[in-house]
Amino acid sequence: MRAAYLVEPDADRPAEAIRVGDLDPAPAPDGWVEVDVRAGALNMHDIWTLRGANKGTGTRPHVIGSDAAGVAGDRDVIVYPVVPRKPDGRIVEHAVLLPDAGHGVLAERIAVPPGHLVAKPGHLSWSEAAALPTAWLTAYRMLFTKARLEPGHVVLVQGAGGGVATAAIGLAAAAGATVVVTSRSPGKRERALALGATAAIGSGERVPQLADVVVETVGPATFEHSTRSTRAGGTIVVCGGTSGFAAQLDLARLFAREISVHGSTMGTLAEFEALVAFVAAHRIRPAVDSTADLADVRAQAARMLAGEAFGKLCVSLS
Predict the structure, then answer these.
(1) What structural domains and CATH numbers belong to the chain?
(2) Closest-CA residue to 132 (of 55, 40, 46)
C-alpha cells in the first residue's frame, strides 16, 4: 500500500523528512476493521512528529497522519483519530492520536477500532470529511464543552487561517454566535468573513466588543490581547501555541475580571459523533485550502510551515 511515513526526523526541515512509498500494513489488534482511505489531512501534530518532538512508539518507518475518511465495507466513514487509553492522572484519555500508537492513517489502507467509524455526511466531499477529525473535533470541544457556547455569545478567534481557527469560525457562526477574527493578513480576514465571521480585525487591534469566549491557538504572540479582549466572567480556551508555549499572563486582569482559562485537547468519541451530526444538520462545509495527491504531501507540509494555508491541507489517496 502507498503511505506517507517518517524514517528519521528532521528538526530543521520537517517537510523533507516525509517519505512516500509502498509499505506493508502495520499489524492490527484483533477486532479492528479495515478502511480504504480516500482522503486525509495534515495537522501541526504531524509537523511536530516530523521534527522529532513526538516520539510515538519509536518504531520506524512510522506512518504519519491522524485524519482520514474512506470506505469500510459498504459504508462511507470518517475515522475518530484517538487511541483508546485509560486515564493515568498525567494525560487525559482522549489525548493520544492514532499515529502516536503506530497506527497513522495517511495510507491507502488502515485498520482502526470498530467503534471509531462515524458515517460521512453525504454533502461533504472526501477532503471536507477528512478535515473534521483533529482540528474540527478540537474546536468543537473548545467551544461547546469547555466554553459552553450559547447563541448570542461573542467569540474571538485568534489567528484566522489555521484548521482549528477556521473550524471555530464555522461552528460558532452556525451556533448563533457573533464571531470576531484576528489576522495580520487582509486576505485571510476577508476569507474569514466569507466563512461566517461578523468582524475581522488586524492582530492586536481593539475588538468591537469584549468576548464571552476566546479561542486561543497562537500562544505568546496573542495571549495578552486575548486577556484584554475577554469580558468579565468570560472564558479563554487554549489548545496549542503556534508561536511558542511560554506566555506572560496578566494576573491582575485575570482575577479582577474573573476570567477562566481552560486547556483543551482533542475530544471524546461522543463529542466526535456530536460534531459530525452538527456539521450534517447545519450542512457546514469545512474550509479546505487545497488537496494534493499523496505523492505531493511534502508540498502540503511546506505550505503549512510557511503559514500560507487558509483551512485544511488535504491529501487524496483515491
Answers:
(1) 2-131+286-316 (3.90.180.10), 135-263 (3.40.50.720)
(2) 40
